[in-house]
Each structure stands twice: as structure tokens, then as C-alpha cells.
Design goal:
By secondary structure, this protein is of the alpha/beta class. The chain has helices spanning 14-20, 25-34, 36-45, 65-88, 104-116, 133-146, 155-159, 207-219; strands at 6-10, 50-57, 91-96, 123-131, 172-175, 194-197. Strand 3, helix 5 (104-116) and strand 4 (123-131) form a beta-alpha-beta unit.
Length: 229
């Protein structure tokens, strides 16, 4: 049976979910963020120690100013509202992504939540916000170049300078919404990750769907490049 310590999710389909109901895209984002707590709770129940959620891509800046502003405000409010819940349930929040371009209020809120949940050990939830995997890898190389003590470039050197340096690579990557693409998400980390593309839009995705995927994952024969006869 395959071990399972890390699940990563591209939460796609919020806008389309809302438009299907003749609602503004922001309504879909609101429903989508409500879906996060039940998924965290399920992962805690399964003793999954790491959950990484793709919240906002660097490419999402191409969307309308109104939608981007709404997403930022929604995250800011979510963190303020749920801080007590996160602390009570021993949930550690870790942000991965560029903190540039963020409003000072949101930046300070992010730092506050990271600090106040830093000792929580039940589950670590990585929020990929203002995130680009290509940017993450480039940033790793920049840090290595600046570090005069590093004289030998290895795979571990690069890995140890990524945003996810203290996090195991995902065992499972799920993308909701019906598209079969990675969208610049954890490209370094998913070399041997089992990937599941599902048609359900994110607000419709639930713990039962995740449980079905985990059952499929458990039955997969994982060779990591080797050949087992």
C-alpha cells in the first residue's frame, strides 16, 4: 500500500461554476473558499500531514482588476476569520509564492498567521498565493548564486532553496475543473506525483471525491523509475 503524506490541489472552476448559475465570477470564488475547510478536515482525519492549495497564480494578474482585488480581499478576510479555528485545530499555514505586489495590510496579515500557526503540528497547509513554479525555481538559483558558501550545485541544493524546502513532494496532485494541464504549479516537485484530472468544478468537489482518488492512489503500483517484476 502506498504511503500518503502530501496532497496538492489546483482548485479550478470557481468562475465557470458561478457563470453556469448566472452569477458573477466572484460568487464562485466565495463558494470555492468555503470548500477549503472541509477538505482540510478530511485530510486531518486521514492523517495527511501536508496539503498544498493553488490559490492565486502570478498569471492571474491578467484577470480584471475587480476580480483580482476581490480575491485578495477574500483571502485577507478568510485568514482573519479563521485564525482561531486554525490555532484550535493545530493547523499550520505556510505561504509559498512572491510577496511582492501584495498590499501591506495583506502582507502583514499573512506574516501574522504564519507566525501564530508556526508551532501547529497536526497538518501543514501550504497556500500557493501569487505563485509561479518557474519563478520559484528561478528564485532558488538566485539564492544559490548569492550564497558564497555553496560551491557545488546539486539537485538537493536546488531543492533546499525552493519555497517547499521542508515539505515532502506531493504524492497526489488533483486538478478540478476539467482541464488537463499543470498551469505552472509545483513543476519541480511533481516528478513522480500521481496526477488526477477531474471534471468537477472546485465548488462541487468534496471529501467523498477526494476519498475516491485516494483509494485509486493506494492501488497504483509506483516504481519511481525502477522495474518491478
Amino acid at each position: 500500500m502506498n504511503n500518503l503524506s502530501h496532497v496538492a490541489i489546483i482548485m479550478d472552476g470557481n468562475g465557470r461554476w458561478a457563470l453556469k448559475r448566472k452569477k458573477p465570477r466572484t460568487f464562485g470564488h466565495k463558494e470555492g473558499i468555503r470548500n477549503i475547510k472541509p477538505i482540510i478536515k478530511f485530510c486531518q482525519g486521514r492523517n495527511i500531514k501536508f496539503l498544498t492549495l493553488f490559490v492565486f497564480s502570478l498569471d492571474n494578474w491578467k484577470r480584471s482588476r475587480k476580480e483580482v482585488s476581490y480575491l485578495f480581499t477574500m483571502l485577507d478576510n478568510f485568514l482573519k476569520k479563521e485564525l482561531n479555528y486554525l490555532t484550535k485545530n493545530k493547523i499550520k499555514i505556510n505561504f509559498i509564492g512572491e510577496k511582492k505586489k501584495l498590499e501591506k495590510k495583506l502582507y502583514l496579515n499573512i506574516k501574522n498567521v504564519e507566525k501564530k500557526t508556526s508551532k501547529n503540528l497536526n497538518i501543514t497547509v501550504n497556500l500557493a498565493f501569487n505563485y509561479s513554479s518557474k519563478g520559484e525555481i528561478l528564485n532558488s538559483f538566485k539564492k544559490i548564486i548569492k550564497n558564497k558558501k555553496i560551491t557545488n550545485l546539486t539537485l538537493d541544493t536546488i531543492k533546499n532553496n525552493l519555497y517547499t524546502k521542508n515539505v515532502p513532494d506531493p504524492d497526489i496532485l488533483i486538478r478540478s475543473g476539467g482541464y488537463s494541464r499543470l498551469s505552472d504549479f509545483l513543476l519541480w516537485q511533481i516528478a513522480y506525483t500521481e496526477i488526477f484530472f477531474i471534471k468537477k468544478l472546485w465548488p462541487d468537489f468534496n471529501a467523498n471525491d477526494l476519498n475516491k482518488i485516494i483509494k485509486k492512489y493506494i492501488s497504483i503500483k509506483r516504481n519511481f523509475g525502477a522495474v518491478n517484476v
